[in-house]
Amino acid sequence: MDGDDGFNREKRKRSIALALALAALVVLVFVMSIVKWSMHVH
Amino acid sequence: MATAETFPASRTATVGDFFALLKPRVMSLVIFTGLAGIVVAPGHVHPMIAFTALLCIAVGAGASGALNMAYDSDIDALMTRTAGRPIPMGRIARRDVLGFGYTLSIASVALMGLFVNFAAAALLAFTIFFYVGVYTLWLKRRTPQNIVIGGLSGALPPAIGWAAVTGSLSLAPLVLVAIIFLWTPPHFWALALFRSGDYARAGVPMLPVVSGKRVTRWNIFLYTLALVPAGVAPYFLGFAGPLYLACASGLGLVFLAQSVAVLRETDALKEPAAKRLFGISLIYLAALFAALIVERLAHWM
Prior knowledge:
The complex is a heterodimer of chains A (42) and B (301).
Chain A: H1 2-41
Chain B: H1 15-21, H2 24-40, H3 47-71, H4 73-76, H5 94-115, H6 118-139, H7 146-155, H8 157-166, H9 171-194, H10 196-202, H11 207-210, H12 213-236, H13 242-263, H14 272-300
């Protein structure tokens, strides 16, 4: 069942990469919102 | 038993395959020229806004590359240089790449509009549209002028970077755009000279395939002749210093001398002069924009 193992491993890696990309996007949006807010305040 | 062969292509794709769809080498040059536009632009911008602008330019460029690979997967399979890409290799389904590319395109333009400014977002959207719609879908398979006109999309990142800082455009970023625009034909035609068999097999009407190598050599020389003075223009327009002038004039002369060597090439089979010109063109563009960035950083210190 090497094919199954390899497939599951790649599927897990793709899921982790997608989760990291989405997390980075959320952090970016959050930080940029604070930056925009601070620029508006000043 | 389920094996990789029984799954639709994208279920066997690796993270590296998706990364390859973004054309990371092209993306690195786009990031570099976009960064030059940001640092050369007058005025001050918050570092996080500059970072976001650069990220959006990079993701937009990567998305364009992925969409290009999706629409060109049929001819990519026929050319040695591109046959190893994820779609022709059967590792990713074409429709999934289209979804991937359009998602990233929309996300990059939306983020640019939300957090940088409308002008930069509009320019980024236009760049993606021009590369995918005008170059890939319209011109590439129809005319030997494909890379000349389509080259505008690759030339725009410095203008996007500039617009991210100033919210507008002026002569300086347009000069940087003109430099990359004039650089594109000799760069790609040098590649087309030593890969002409590839392009002929795929039916892509590159200049050496349609008009022959002699016409291509003359076109390379004439475009280089126009590029070299355009390359030194930033110094005389006052937005580049002596380091830039030294790089642009010195490497410009090397570029021109090599284009003459291409003109006088006798080995039409291996095209060694065209191969050297291809390498020199990469060094030329990287050095010019590196000099712009270094001079501005030195000025800030």
